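fyi for ur records
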Amino acid sequence: MDNSVLVLDFGSQYTQLIARRVRELGVYSQIKPCTTPPHSVDLSGVKALILSGGPSSVSDADAPQFDQEWLKLGLPTLGVCYGMQLISVLCGGKLGQGVSREYGFAALEINDPSGLFEGFERGEKTTVWMSHGDHVEELPRGFRVLAHSAGAPIAAIGNESKRMYAIQFHPEVVHTPRGKEMLSNFVLRVAGVTPTWSPANFIESSIEHVRATVGETGNVICGLSGGVDSTVAAVLVGKAIGSRLYCLFVDNGLLRKGESDQVLEKLGAPGIGLNVRRIDAASRFLSELKGVTDPEKKRKIIGRIFIEVFEEEAQKIPRVSHLVQGTLYPDVIESVSVRGPSATIKTHHNVGGLPEKMNLKLIEPFRELFKDEVRRVGRDLSVPQELISRQPFPGPGLAVRVLGEVTDERLRLLRDADAIFMEEVRAEGLYESIWQSFAVLLPIKSVGVMGDGRTYEQAIALRAVYSEDGMTADWVYLPQDLLRRVSSRIINEVKGINRIVLDITSKPPGTIEWE
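which gave:
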């Protein structure tokens, strides 16, 4: 794509944020593993290069592999943290280790208000987020110091003639308040990239691409969950091929209270009018989950049955050539590691193995977009705000929020408690500002007292987090009155629950879902 920025990933947990921040400037960005050689990438539209941070030391024997030809391309280049150290070493500088470690907030003082720091004042101090052990001890050839901190005398460097810059801190995180300004200076001023990217101009080209991909006769199926990604993907493909899109909504019995009916009502309403077929497979899923408590086994069983049910129904539709999936860009880049396959924390909710099993070709219109960009596309496609603003919901549904065995009765307890929590969150006006809020049924019972009698019943945990994309998250400080109402209502209205607890764990170290 023309006017784009390429980000090379060295394993930083913040790499996605770099790409997001660049896109927020109106410039398309994509991420490639740092092991990617230049000759394997179409560089015709790439105007700048960013080297991400990473957990390794440049001097480690198993440091990520990097083709030095990238630095010989003449592209404007920015190194972030590990990227700075790599550039320094490759350009003749020297690193120091272990003495000037900095982790967390630091005061950056500007030496030279030019290049990355256009618009700053000489001597001005600004807060940045540091996370490094190694540091640059001797400047690489042709570079000069642009900024320093107490723990890093060489915190930002630049070679104006080569349009090559490097910084020891992370400009992409919210903890660096003026970081986006620094990135803007690099992308728009130093590299001179024209901002032409937006989800709006993405729609027209995507519709044309879908039409060309499918052709004039083939039918397409979409596994519709009612979530934002699959809903907006279905609407976009529907715009392209009309009634040749068949949406299959598999009701696995693991949805929230009343959700199945609500989803079908909204998706079939005028303005969207998707051709949706509901498949009631609840008893099949619950039968297979009987006695299963291990979360990974739950996920695998649910994924397998979904594939079986989906395949059976798809075979009833003639001339099906393609499958639509709401795969997002984070799904794509998380599957690639700088040192090979990443460790599996949880099986991803997207249907693995389905295309190969069904011999269908994939249509993934959003594999280059982040969640917030998909929501913007949905708004431009006139998808109702109620669907656009829906909080993310796990693919395995309530099976991973019922800790322990999944049964009809335990699902009832969770559904009723969760519905009360959601009702009160909405009444408080917090639903759309929270990334996810939900209840979890714990696999324990505790003693309680009700009406002067002893109870021994189930416990519910409440979970609410703020996040931008689900990669990291902070717990929400819910109002005390809201928590009091929710606790009182659940215990009084949901027979079988006698204790409510609050989850105040961030990600990391925890995950958003409990399983």
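The chain has 14 helices and 20 strands. thats all i got for now
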